[in-house]
Amino acid sequence: MKTAAIIGGGVIGGGWAARFLLNGWDVRVFDPDPEAEAKLAPVLAQARRALPSLTDVALPDEGALSFHFDMAEAVAGVDWIQESVPERLEIKHKVLASVQAHCPPDAIIGSSTSGFKPSELQEGAARPGQIMVCHPFNPVYLMPLIEVVPSPATDLALVEKAETILRSVGHFPLRVRKEIDAHIADRFLEAVWREALWLVKDGVATTEEIDEAIRMGFGIRWAQMGLFDTYRTAGGEAGMRHFMAQFGPALQWPWTKLMDVPEFTDELVDLIAGQSDAQSGHMSIADMLKARDDNLVGMMRSLKANDWGAGAVMNAHEASLRAGTVLAAHADDLDDVSEPILTVRRAVPLDWTDYNGHMNEARYLQAFGDATDRFMALIGCDADYIATGGSYFTAETHIRHVDEVHAGAVIEVRTQVLAGAGKKMHLFHEMYEGTRLLATGEHFLLHVSLETRRPSEPSAGIVAALTRIASAHAALPAPDGAGRAVGQRP
Amino acid sequence: MKTAAIIGGGVIGGGWAARFLLNGWDVRVFDPDPEAEAKLAPVLAQARRALPSLTDVALPDEGALSFHFDMAEAVAGVDWIQESVPERLEIKHKVLASVQAHCPPDAIIGSSTSGFKPSELQEGAARPGQIMVCHPFNPVYLMPLIEVVPSPATDLALVEKAETILRSVGHFPLRVRKEIDAHIADRFLEAVWREALWLVKDGVATTEEIDEAIRMGFGIRWAQMGLFDTYRTAGGEAGMRHFMAQFGPALQWPWTKLMDVPEFTDELVDLIAGQSDAQSGHMSIADMLKARDDNLVGMMRSLKANDWGAGAVMNAHEASLRAGTVLAAHADDLDDVSEPILTVRRAVPLDWTDYNGHMNEARYLQAFGDATDRFMALIGCDADYIATGGSYFTAETHIRHVDEVHAGAVIEVRTQVLAGAGKKMHLFHEMYEGTRLLATGEHFLLHVSLETRRPSEPSAGIVAALTRIASAHAALPAPDGAGRAVGQRP
């Protein structure tokens, strides 16, 4: 079993500890603060909550976690030492000396420093070859990027070993080919920070307006494609050279407070265009456009579930599309409930489909689940009611897959009540594209107390609404496929 | 029915046209290019493919789209005119004059300009009050942000009307309170672009390395929280003042090529801290941390489906967790197939759960679908085989929900073959947390030709593997719940 020594707790050290620990490594934390264990606990809790979500296969069992005040104990025999002590060179030198006095000579020593170059860290070191920058991003237990920066004195074989280890715990190691203050990413953050400070100072925008300008626009793009690929894609079939011919050294004019800009020579243009081709020339622009939109859709839709950022914008728009239609109605608003009720009408989104463009099996149940939720709200079991402690849980579901449907198709679900009395509700959903039947979903639900998680009586209002519809639907013929078992003869 | 006139086709004009059209507006496109319709077609196709994915309720029917070479025809009686002509002031002035000679005096005139201030656009205009900047982000049919910039001469009631309309078509209008070159967001892009050019020129990083430094790190954060909220969250309970005390006017030191930085006075600190409190003081830092991680997980997991960016990193890590286990095996690798086979072992991710932290109904089928896919791969119906044109489609599914399970719990699915011969496969999945039964899924599948979408014979290899397991499992007792219909007596 591999062992990592984490020198310095806190948000960054704790994130490293969590990443290693949850990937099965033993972790020893060294921090002179007697409260170190208590301070690490919240970061560990956050990591235990979120990191396992990243893979569809379970992580290994957690390793052993221990806390140490003796450096020799902390680093004896370990495979990896990660230094995350305060950003003062003299402190880092002192700590690295202490580490190297006791650690294996072939262990990886990574520094989380955001500001120092590896050659600065190596000054006066007993074994400079062991030392490299491994700069993470908060939260370390989620963000893939680690900027790996060797100096010319660092042992390159050890750097490659470090990168292999980083990949094995789910990181994306980015080799920084030339040491430079702040490496790569933080230089961009610094540039944006300074421009943001000017905007706030000059009263052009508040912190909130700046944040929305980021997260409602290019911020979403950059979660899936960086600066150059975004412009390559936008430049269309004419490609990167065309984009740069149009925009040159300044995206428009020298607007910012930020004065210094490189001269846009043919050499620089060639360099950029060539690197862009090497990076993404294997994809056509059409493919990049398709990938971009697939990615944006998937990410934006995920924010809907959290009603956050762009997702909140989409939810509000959706609410306006529902308003005044049966998709937002209460049963009392409907004069005629004699027919199955429309509970879903939506396009099949891109992220519900497979590479063939057909809706995935599980999404049929997602649509039927949405239909059930809508029907529940229709009879009064809406978000407000659920907040008072009652809801319906699904006990049993039967789905017949009749036909395929493509991304973009508008599907409708109509819901018939087969039975609704007391704690029980038995629904039959039919999914159509136009008049083409796609699937049926038969569901048996029980009203429950969210406190006890046991069956309970619904409110009088719900009983009344459900009874009214159940009675009206009792006159309807039994739908095709109701009451089937899997593999039953037709 | 509302009508929008789009002046200038192309990527931006086309994006606006698509956004209005797909939200039910009639759209008239004015562009002197005889190829305007052909040039718009790809953007429209992209929009039709992606925009309907954003809402879980169907958009209205598309409006009518027409192309015009006569300005009077294009703008007579319209509600909104959006100008997206080339970024030269004299061209914009000419076009705006032509628009105003023929459009309603109370129509909204928005300019997509990324560089000019509204007061510059208004120079010499017949009715300056109608003119405002409405600056979009590519692709306009997906990105929520529109920077709305009035000048002091713009009619504020018209600006508010414009913002209402923008919301109604799914945008996020951001009022820019003080006109400034490039508005807000592009000033940040400009700052990053210049720093990136230096890094490429100085050989510190290639375009690809810069892009990965963005999209594997802060780029993902910025899709859900902007600059200030990210630092507020990272600053912990001590908050924004503490963060700024630590970092001040430079996140570290004046590293960048970008020289000019504002003086960090108490006044500036107060301003920033106060605005940050106004922006996000309604949430505790703990809540922001939780939201952040929920958002990051959801977005990163969505990129797995596309095997893109951070999603590809996660898929690779997951593959290493499967390697050498039954979760990556072929049936031929298994000596003993007499027991139900482990097909899923994973943690319940955060985005599979509802506000109560319990796994959503539809995700049970997603897990069972994953189990079916794993079993298919086990018998040889893997991605390579599917690429040759054969697969299994699910015809019928029966799910019994037995118990609830929380985010983070490790669930296992074990799969028993009830029947497997010829084109048919009948599987029974049981989902457990430890020894606690959570749900069962019974599935009937048919092997199909992906070309004809009709049942077809599987390959000899698949038949052999399936037959071997079906024979071994025939000796197992029938699982509890197999062959049930919904609502059947136990």
Automatic annotation (TrEMBL), chains A, B:
EC numbers, comma separated: 1.1.1.108
Q: Does the keyword Cytoplasm apply?
A: yes
Top-rank taxon of the source lineage equals Bacteria
Q: Where does the chain bind NAD(+)?
A: G8, G9, G10, V11, I12, G13
In this chain the 3-hydroxyacyl-CoA dehydrogenase NAD binding domain maps to 4-179
Q: Does the keyword NAD apply?
A: yes
Classification via CDD domains: 4HBT (cd00586)
Checking Gene3D superfamilies in the record gives: Hotdog Thioesterase (3.10.129.10), N-(1-d-carboxylethyl)-l-norvaline Dehydrogenase, domain 2 (1.10.1040.10), NAD(P)-binding Rossmann-like Domain (3.40.50.720)
Annotated Gene Ontology MF terms?
Answer: carnitine 3-dehydrogenase activity
Q: Where in the cell is it found?
A: Cytoplasm
Pathway assigned in UniProt = Amine and polyamine metabolism; carnitine metabolism
Keywords of this entry? Cytoplasm, NAD, Oxidoreductase
Task: Report the catalytic activity.
Answer: carnitine + NAD(+) = 3-dehydrocarnitine + NADH + H(+)
Summarize the subunit comment.
Answer: Homodimer.
Family of the protein in this entry: Belongs to the 3-hydroxyacyl-CoA dehydrogenase family. L-carnitine dehydrogenase subfamily.
Task: Relate the protein's function as given in its record.
Answer: Catalyzes the NAD(+)-dependent oxidation of L-carnitine to 3-dehydrocarnitine.
How is this protein named in the record?
L-carnitine dehydrogenase
* Phylogenetic classification of the source organism: Bacteria, Pseudomonadati, Pseudomonadota, Alphaproteobacteria, Rhodobacterales
